[in-house]
UniProtKB/TrEMBL annotation:
It catalyses: tRNA(Glu) + L-glutamate + ATP = L-glutamyl-tRNA(Glu) + AMP + diphosphate. ATP binds at K263. This is Glutamate--tRNA ligase. The keyword Transferase does not apply. The gene is gltX. It is an enzyme of class 6 (ligase). It comes from Glycocaulis alkaliphilus. PANTHER family: GLUTAMATE--TRNA LIGASE, GLUTAMATE--TRNA LIGASE, MITOCHONDRIAL-RELATED.
Length: 466
């Protein structure tokens, strides 16, 4: 099964150099997608773009009860917002006829067999095996059922679930992230592909779709490594030898404390990061592209640079630590480098009608774009000044430099006040901040003064709201 020698394209196309790369991101629309999902989507997307291939969104909605259109729409919206646009899209729920055909083929070829054990009976078997020091692997008792025995179960009202008959051999693959990998199928139970109620588990539809869509590389989370042996055998049972795509399994993300991310995953959904946290897409993507790799994590302002930097061989095999503070740092860095035109519409949506001067002045102080609104409020007003010493405020007003206020005006002004009044430090600055902004803390005063402008500054220094 290992076929590294046959891999020829830049990133190990599944044995055929002329075959164009096709990958898929396959979320289940049973919840919001979070940073863990995004990392997998991103790896697929970057890989497709680097190879000039196709990126498919496969909606894994065979679980008709838990899947919702709302979550599906949200996934699409999130991917668009992130810039991870897909070239094709399909839903598993529209493809049950394909799964039925595969089921029939596997039954005909003897790979899929009906089992009648109840959950309790299986549980008892496993306990017994453990007590005897054996691994709790399904004993394949159902394979030796006679037609009469099956008929008897059916007559009792039992419905079969269906298992795939593994070869019992060693399955090997050259994982593009984990390197040479293998699973000894004699050590695992024949997987159940279809439940008693006729519904499909994820395993079979995924293989059927990957085959039918001619997926060349399956890039997914490490939690699917255990499915790989069975899936490779199902690929071969349905599509013939060598029909399995190349596989790449990424170690899971953990929190910065090493704990499972699932605990706070709600806050790490793309929707929450966008709507509640105000994180920029490229901050999320810059982090996720490099997390758990030997590359430094740096802010990248576009996906193109991440495409050229993609290298699966740099991915570590240990879980990658997701650090929220690191994402915030990238977010701030990106904002500091963002040009006015790129944010103009979003500033307008925040009610900020200022132009480039405002943006250039405030952006070095921003952690989130929405913070710009606080600055704008200070500029626009109305601000109720806080004045404890009216004489000092009046003196300061009289010393305000002539002409249009610039970023340098603050320095010149406070030097003049210092020279005139002898005040320094907090005693000098705080009354000015309180008069001009009505607050004890806030943005850098040189910018504030410039943006407020002479007229409003004088009004506020006189004690009137403006
Ligand atoms: N729907 C599966 C998941 O979200 C897809 C796994 C796969 O990529 O094969 O885990």
């Amino acid at each position: 099964m290992a076929k590294p020698a046959a891999f020829t394209c830049r990133s190990n196309c599944a044995g055929n150099p002329s075959m164009s790369v096709k990958v898929r991101f396959a979320p289940s629309p049973t919840g919001l997608i979070h940073v863990g999902n995004v990392r997998i989507a991103l790896m697929n997307w970057l890989f497709a773009r680097r190879e000039g291939g196709t990126f498919v969104l496969r909606v894994d909605d065979t679980d008709l009860e838990r899947s919702t259109k709302l979550f599906e729409d949200q996934i699409v919206e999130d991917l668009h917002w992130l810039g991870l646009n897909f070239d094709e899209r399909f839903n598993q729920s529209a493809r049950f006829d394909l799964y039925e055909a595969a089921r029939a083929k596997l039954v005909d070829t003897g790979f899929l067999y009906p089992c009648y054990e109840t959950e309790d009976e299986l549980d008892r078997k496993r306990k017994l095996q453990r007590a005897q020091g054996k691994p709790p692997v399904y004993d394949r008792a159902a394979l030796s059922l006679t037609d009469a025995e099956k008929a008897k179960y059916e007559a009792e009202g039992r419905k079969p679930h269906w298992r795939f008959k593994l070869s019992g051999g060693r399955i090997e693959w050259n994982d593009l992230v984990r390197g040479p990998s293998h699973i000894d199928t004699s050590s695992v139970s024949d997987p159940i592909l279809i439940r008693e109620d006729g519904s499909y588990l994820y395993t079979l539809p995924s293989v059927v779709d990957d085959l039918e869509a001619k997926i060349t590389h399956v890039i997914r989370g490490e939690d699917h490594v255990t499915n790989s042996a069975a899936q490779i055998e199902i690929f071969e049972a349905l599509g013939g030898k060598g029909s399995s795509p190349a596989l790449a399994h990424f170690p899971l993300l953990v929190g910065s404390d090493g704990e499972k991310l699932s605990k706070r995953i709600g806050g790490l959904s793309v929707k929450a990061l966008r709507e509640e946290e105000g994180i920029e897409p490229m901050a999320i993507l810059s982090l996720l592209a490099k997390l758990g790799t030997s590359d430094a994590i740096e802010a990248r302002s576009d996906l193109a640079s991440l495409v050229s930097e993609l290298d699966f061989s740099k991915v570590s095999r240990t879980p990658a630590r997701f650090d929220f503070a690191e994402m915030e740092r990238l977010n701030a860095k990106l904002l500091h480098e963002t040009g006015f035109l790129a944010v103009r519409d979003r500033l307008e949506a925040l009610g900020i009608t200022a132009g480039e001067t405002f943006w250039n002045a405030v952006r070095p102080n921003l952690n989130r774009l929405k913070d710009a609104a606080d600055w704008w409020q200070l500029v626009e007003g109305p601000v109720t000044p806080v004045i404890e010493d009216a004489d000092y405020a009046a003196k300061a007003a009289s010393l305000l430099p002539d002409g249009e206020l610039t970023r340098e005006s603050w320095g010149a002004w406070t030097s003049a006040i210092k020279a005139e009044t002898g005040r320094k430090g907090r005693e000098l600055f705080m009354p000015l901040r309180q008069a001009l902004t009505g607050q004890n803390h806030g943005p850098e005063m040189d910018v504030v003064l410039m943006l407020i402008g002479r007229e409003k500054a004088l009004t506020r220094l006189s004690g009137q709201a403006a």
